[in-house]
Amino acid sequence: xxxxxxxxxxxxxxxxxxxxxxxxxxxxxxxxxxxxxxxxxxxxxxxxxxxxxxxxxxxxxxxxxxxxxxxxxxxx
Length: 76
Fold this sequence. Notes:
The chain has helices at about 15-25, 30-35; strands spanning about 45-50, 60. By secondary structure, it is mainly alpha-helical.
């Protein structure tokens, strides 16, 4: 497929998806390949849950102490 082909030529991209791509100025396959997200998740060093700041994103360091029960279906 050529880079100047419209994104609507991609399998699964219909008129609705093409309109969503157009909102991001993505009109061709090449535009899509050169599109980079505007934000990234930052993975920080793990901290104990008790030390995590309220409302902040954090990578937590947790220890599972007990074993839970897993049901394949709801108990009767």
